[in-house]
Amino acid sequence: MVKKETLNALAINFSAFDPSTGIETIPFLGISKLLGEGLGYGGEGDIYSATVVYLLQLLADKANFVEMFTTDYKNNCILMNHMGESNPQMAKRNFPIRMIQDDLSLSNCLPTAILSFTLEP
């Protein structure tokens, strides 16, 4: 769809993914691959984030869609994450990128594959 429609950015709404709609799982692995190829992306139907991520891809060569989940002031760290999509081009060098199964406990969807990795600071 991205190639056919020549999309520069994409925003999806997770509520559209449900076995009752015929779409049984959320394609987080595919979204991560597209982020790595320079696509703009916004989760939760956020077209503004998708646009900004695309512009940052152009300006900074790579960008990501994540949220600041929590801050660890003692160790000077911030946990950056989202539901399962992340730009693998921003993975910390010399650290493994693993593909894991996510049970998607926050949705009615079937499990999906996601990439798990540490972001480069």
Characterization of this structure:
By secondary structure, the protein is of the alpha+beta class. The protein is built from 2 helices and 6 strands. The mean pLDDT is 92.
Can you summarize this structure?
The chain is an alpha+beta fold and 121 residues long. It is built from two helices and six strands.
Write down the overall geometry: globular
The number of helices is 2
Percentage of residues in strands: 15-25%
Low-confidence stretches: none
Spatial order of the strands forming the largest sheet = 1-2
Give the termini distance in whole angstroms.
33 Å
Order of helices and strands: EHEHEEEE
**Secondary-structure content class:** alpha+beta
Report the sheet with the most strands, covering strand number, pairing sense and barrel closure. Answer: 2 strands, parallel
How many domain modules?
Answer: 1
Helix content: 10-25%
Please tally the β strands and state the result.
6
Cα Rg:
15 Å
Instruction: Give the overall pLDDT as a whole number.
Output: 92
